[in-house]
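Practice problem: predict the structure.
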Amino acid sequence: MDYGRIDAYVLQLVESSTPERTAWNMEKLREGKKASWNYIDGCMLTALMEMTRITGDGRYGAFAEKVADHFVREDGSIRTFKPDDHNLDDINEGRVLFELYDRTGKEKYRLAADGLARQLDAQPRTAEGSFWHKAIYPNQVWLDGLYMAQPFRALYEKHFGRRDYSDIVRQIRTVHERMLDREKGLYYHGYDASRTAFWADPVTGCSKNFWLRSLGWFAVALADLTDILPEGEERRELAGIFADLMAAVSRYADGETGLYWQVPDQGGREGNYLETSGSAMMAYAMLKGARLGVLGKEYAAKGQKTFDGIMDKYLTFTDSGLDLGGICLVAGLGPENNRRRDGSYEYYISEPVVANDAKGVAPFVLAYTEIKRLTA
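Answer:
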């Protein structure tokens, strides 16, 4: 595999971006909007920081700092951040603040992290103690939200807090208890603790199907948390949940490519397709889990097969850079006034499939950071 060309592509993305217009955030570019503080750029900045750590090339991390400087004011407030939305997605970009604070000593980064931690303290919760995904989704837990909020919380506890990870583990334990299909070993996309959402099963509260990217976010959250938490019972509990999920997920991989299906347990069904973003997340999680010793060594090979499969099936090198296809643009559940998003099989395969969207590019680059570690 010609991995070296990916380095040039990532650098090209960085050098053609500004904090207000990132080259990978196609959603913003298509809408003609300036960049905002958001989870998509947050995922990419996390990958860029990792690229600098691995390669020693400071240009990746320097751009991440440039973006953070653009959005974080001297008093720690964050430009475009909307506290009243109580949107877990908007916490994710805060992950870069800790390393930037350690590297630069800029007090505004610590103040911004303090502010995001207070935001989570005020986040509405279900009766069981889990964060609502957003204010517009009352009593709803989505797998996506575990990645958006919990690694940030763990990093905050590690750097600035009391190193109390109990609530993080408790929320993941609730997901494990409420959202896992024990027969298939997969987790449903969403769970409504009130069991009143139109898409929710009235008995279990779960949505109807599994969605690859949401499973991917959850897998990445577990991989990152096992990296952050110290040795002990809490880390062992998360590592067990992580290992069980990866064992289950790997059974649904396409035998030829190593990729995973948009609706993971229904491979080959009419309309279903091998999807890039969730596959990249699974590759990252497996590669990282194997590197950390949380997963068996065979998962490194599985993760690399998936990554190589993405390159074979969906990656095209062009004169202008690189095209990455097979990316589900978006999927969600509701809200009430959007009943098309009902969690059905037909819904998940109906969302647009696009190229070069950041929700695929950023996980692909994240997975690439683990490939670089593996092949160094």
